[in-house]
Amino acid sequence: MPTEALRRAGTRVHEPMHRFRVEAPVDTLGALLPVPAGLSAVPRTTLTRRVGG
Fold it and tell me: What is the pLDDT along the chain (53 residues), one digit of tens a residue?
């Protein structure tokens, strides 16, 4: 079994870490942020900024 061979070899298998950036209107964040959280994503930074005048 391949997993047994990996265990005996001392090999570790980790999930890939993905980074992403989301740019969205501030009034949509309440609906948007639970989506990646439901996939076990952990936000590192949340930044809001005013665009335009």
Answer: 567 876 788 877 677 777 778 888 888 888 988 888 888 888 788 777 777 75
Q: Say which amino acid occupies 4.
A: E
Whether the CB-CB separation of 22 and 32 falls below 8 Å is answered with yes
- Using the CB atoms, write b or e for 13-44: b if 16+ within 10 Å: eeeeeeeeeeeeeeeeeeeeeeeeeeeeeeee
**Kindly report the CA angle at 48 between 30 and 22, in degrees rounded to 5?**
65
CB 26 within 8 A of CB 48: yes
